[in-house]
Specification:
Length: about 350
């Protein structure tokens, strides 16, 4: 049976405690003990105590309680094992009374009665059996907690991967159609557009699989996305991207900002030079401030944001719990998204 590190630590602490008690008893005991006494009490009785502990730990609890739920049968086995171990120790002691049952109190030699010795050993054997129960249940609790944490982590990772898979589902096809139009027109922009699409796909497929990426890479991704989207607008697209602070030194969860920019192109007015889309990124050692402001397209009656904003907010809840603030302002003429993340 493979034990976790926590389980091994619990076992180590318990047996270190037992060894310490034995060492203190030997050190402070003024009586001279025979070699036979040490062999019987430390070796034979030690083997019995260890056997009690691990028979209960490895066999009785797993087989009768955890696997079969036979609680009455377990209690019966517990009592029989306890009585058998105490009886074996008592028989050994009765056969060797001078080494096991004789002691000195107040300067006078005395001898334990067999029944007294038996009940004393019942208590001692019971200590090892109960201790094995406590350690087994504690180890299982820690193991279950670790399993639950792993399952929760896997669930969160699966949900994050699902949310990432929803990002820009039609982006590739739209971009290919735009590039096809350029190629059909034999435009000089075709090669540059293909290169930007290649960089975008490389980032989305390979580089965004890590938990975090450099903020500068995310900015490059946004820049390539913006340049590729501008191909759609024959009259030009007006985007103001402003960068301030420590962009090169900070990290962020990948593909976290794209939905805001995508919504500006999808639902906003991007070809009005008097009202350009304003994208602002400010980063320092603690805070990332990101905002997108765009003029609303009054002819677009779709709900602003679509699936993108619920998607990104769910991702924010998963990867930046209690570390972000998202403020969305939907006025009569403009749409503003402002995001602050404690990075």
């Amino acid at each position: 049976m493979k034990k976790s590190k926590g389980t091994l630590i619990l076992h180590g602490i318990f047996w270190a405690f037992i060894i310490l008690i034995i060492a203190l008893d030997v050190f402070f005991d003024s009586q001279v003990k025979s070699v036979k006494h040490f062999l019987l009490s430390l070796v034979l009785f030690g083997i019995i105590n260890i056997s009690l502990f691990y028979i209960n730990y490895l066999i009785l609890i797993p087989q009768l309680i955890k696997k079969r739920k036979k609680y009455f049968l377990y209690m019966l086995a517990f009592v029989l094992l306890l009585g058998a171990a105490a009886l074996i120790k008592t028989v050994v002691a009765v056969l060797n009374p001078k080494d096991m049952m004789d002691y000195i109190m107040e300067g006078k030699p005395k001898t334990l009665q067999a029944d007294q010795y038996f009940f004393a050993q019942l208590f001692l054997c019971g200590f090892f059996l109960v201790s094995s129960c406590l350690i087994k249940f504690a180890a299982d609790w820690f193991s279950n907690e670790r399993i639950q944490r792993n399952l929760e982590s896997e669930r969160r990772e699966m949900e994050l991967q699902f949310l990432k898979s929803q990002l820009n589902p039609h982006f590739l096809f739209n971009s290919l159609n735009n590039i096809y139009s350029l190629a059909y027109q034999k435009s000089d922009k075709t090669a540059d557009a293909i290169m930007k699409l290649s960089e975008i796909m490389r980032y989305m497929i390979y580089e965004s699989n890590t938990p975090t990426v450099a903020l500068s890479k995310e900015v490059d991704y946004l820049t390539n996305y913006i340049e590729l989207q501008k191909i759609r607008f024959k009259d030009g697209a007006f985007i103001e991207l402003t960068l301030n602070g420590e962009i090169d030194d900070q990290k962020i969860v990948p593909l976290m900002l794209i939905s805001f920019v995508e919504n500006a192109f999808k639902h906003g007015v991007v070809n009005d030079p008097e009202n350009p889309v304003k994208i602002n990124i400010i980063a320092n050692q603690k805070i990332l401030h990101f905002s997108v402001i765009n003029k609303k397209n009054q002819q677009n009656k779709d709900a602003q944001g679509g699936i993108g904003l619920p998607n990104v907010e769910r991702r924010l809840q998963l990867v930046y719990p209690d570390r972000y603030k998202l403020n969305v302002v939907n006025s009569a003429t403009h749409y503003t998204c402002e995001l602050m993340i404690d990075i």
